[in-house]
Design a protein that fits this description.
mainly alpha, disordered C terminus, transmembrane helix, about 0% strand, membrane, transmembrane, about 90% helix, rod-shaped
Length: about 210
């Protein structure tokens, strides 16, 4: 765009110079006869005017070129600033997204750790309860076994001492029956035996075992 504009200005200046030459030529033809010195002076002035015009045109072109360069520099500066701002905004957005993602990941990790800790605690409690129940059952079995053995031994000793397994009854029952038989022959002894039996609550009839 700048080159096209400069070419247009150049052609315009060239056309203006040609028009000036044509006007000068016509003026020379129409004007009365003049001397060679005047012609040389006028040509010198014309050349000086052309040189001054060229200088002005060159100055204008240079000033315009400088303006275009300054405009281009400004545009480049603005473009760089815009790109820098966009890059800064993009970096800030990416940093914020990364920070949010890291926070979300940390929260998920903390939640997972808490869930794992709760699950481990639940498993530990379940295992502790199972172990406690097993220990209680084992303790009861181990604690009751000596009692069971002792009761069995006492029962065996009682059966052996009392003779419960005898078809005629226990030894106590047979002893009372023998005392009753003796008491029938001796009334005084019978009375004494009855009093002794009453004192010891042994006078009632003891049922015979079948």
């Amino acid at each position: 765009m700048m080159k096209k504009h400069l070419s247009r200005l150049f052609f315009t200046a060239l056309f203006s110079a040609l028009m000036i030459h044509v006007d000068v030529a016509l003026a020379v033809e129409v004007a009365p006869r003049i001397s060679d010195r005047e012609i040389i002076e006028r040509l010198t002035r014309l050349e000086e005017g052309q040189q001054s015009m060229r200088r002005e045109i060159a100055q204008r072109f240079s000033s315009m070129e400088q303006r275009f360069l300054s405009m281009e520099q400004r545009m480049e500066t603005m473009q760089k600033q815009t790109e820098h701002r966009m890059e800064t905004m993009q970096k800030q957005t990416e940093q914020r997204m990364e920070a949010m993602q890291k926070q979300a990941e940390q929260r998920f990790l903390s939640v997972e750790k808490r869930m794992d800790a709760q699950w481990n605690l639940t498993l530990a409690l379940i295992m502790a309860i199972i172990g406690l129940v097993g220990f209680v059952i084992w303790d009861r079995k181990t604690a009751l076994k000596p009692l069971e053995r002792r009761f069995e031994r006492i029962a065996d000793e009682l059966e052996c001492d009392l003779g419960v397994a005898s078809p005629e009854g226990s030894r106590l029952t047979r002893l009372i029956a023998a005392l009753r038989e003796i008491a029938l022959d001796d009334p005084q002894l019978s009375e004494r035996i009855r009093e002794a039996l009453r004192r010891h609550s042994l006078l009632e009839e003891t049922p015979q075992r079948v």
